[in-house]
Amino acid sequence: MTETTRLDALVRRIEVLEAEADIRRLQARYMFLCDTPMPEFGVTSDAERIDLIMALYTEDAVWEGVGEYYDNQFGRAVGAAAIRKHFEGFWGGKTDPALILNCHYLTSEQIHVHEGGTTADGQWVHMQPWLFSDGKALLRSSRLNNTFRKEPDGVWKITRTRTENVFVAPLPSTWASDYPSKSVLMRP
């Protein structure tokens, strides 16, 4: 192997590692922005939250719930406008009872950067406790099978969010005794 070949191989390996790190941060950012109460400092409205989430997606992206439980619950949204509408239906005081606690925990990560280094897919399992204003509570787990594209400006974006139910388990209304009404973690 020549020195040039070795250097080219090393550059490709670094590019893959950087892509994996970017995608990992992108997926974690999406989940962070979907948490309730909203942990992003300075975001005071659901419209701002949705704008931040939409900045993570490509214009031609797809958001879909699949499988026997999520097909009818979440459906399929194609394109940025449809995905925005999906999120607008979820936030903005449009749910009754109101969601007062939701936190995403990601695990079982697999990220695959495809040949050429501009597309990738990733799989995760996530769990999230939900608490509603009427005291109803549940624990939800899903498998994610998402795709990503490196845009011409070098920024990775989500091209597909695909979620499939693993389980939904009711929790007692008293399962969480102490939780914040707003996040203060991100204050400067």
Automatic annotation (TrEMBL):
Keyword Isomerase: yes
UniProt-recorded name of the protein: Ketosteroid isomerase
SUPFAM superfamilies found in the cross-reference section: NTF2-like
Pfam families, per the entry: SnoaL_4 (PF13577)
Signal peptide: none
A single GO molecular function term of this UniProt record: isomerase activity
The keyword Lyase is assigned to this record: no
Domain SnoaL-like: 16-162
Keywords recorded for this protein, A-Z: Isomerase
